[in-house]
Write a structure and sequence with these properties.
Elements (H helix, E strand, L loop, with lengths): L2 H38 L4 H9 L3 H16 L11 H38 L4 H27 L3
Helix pairs in contact: 1-2, 1-3, 1-4, 2-4, 3-4, 3-5, 4-5
């Protein structure tokens, strides 16, 4: 395997691994709060489940970037990467969603906990409670966009 292919695959692995790890942590953090609310008020299950699942999107974004990368570098089609410079470009293109996905998912989980607290005390405020973790999602989406734009313009 060439060094170029190594760096491209490393970028894809980090996109999926870091964003996925952040999502797992964020969903886990929010799930703990959600379970407490459901134990007291089972009727709030659907609302707190939605809030718990929000940090899971970053893992999906990392997976998307990894699939695009793998399809472009010859693993799932495309042309195999042979030179180191191109491999490093793929690696760099994967880093926005890898790093921002990791961090934003964790903080989105923490923000979801606060929103779950709102729903526990004021179920009628669910719409407002959704806005707080959704604001964190904005930065995950921006990093996804940068990664995709970089990937499609390599070569």
């Amino acid at each position: 395997m060439s060094m170029g292919m190594f760096f491209a695959l490393l970028g894809a692995a980090l996109a999926v691994g870091l964003a996925g790890a952040g999502s797992a942590m964020g969903v886990g953090i929010a799930g703990q709060a959600a379970a407490g609310v459901v134990a007291e008020e089972p009727g709030q299950f659907a609302k707190v489940l939605i809030l718990q699942l929000l940090p899971g999107t970053q893992g999906i974004y990392g997976l998307l970037v990894a699939f695009i990368t793998l399809s472009q570098v010859g693993v799932l089609g495309g042309n195999p990467v042979s030179d180191t410079a191109t491999g490093l470009m793929y690696f760099a293109a994967c880093m926005p969603i890898a790093v921002a996905g990791l961090i934003s998912a964790i903080y989105q989980g923490k923000t979801s906990v606060a929103s779950i607290g709102i729903v526990a005390k004021r179920p009628d405020q669910f719409g407002k409670a959704m806005l707080f973790p959704a604001m964190v999602e904005t930065y995950a989406i921006l990093s996804l966009l940068v990664s995709i734009l970089a990937l499609i313009n390599i070569g």
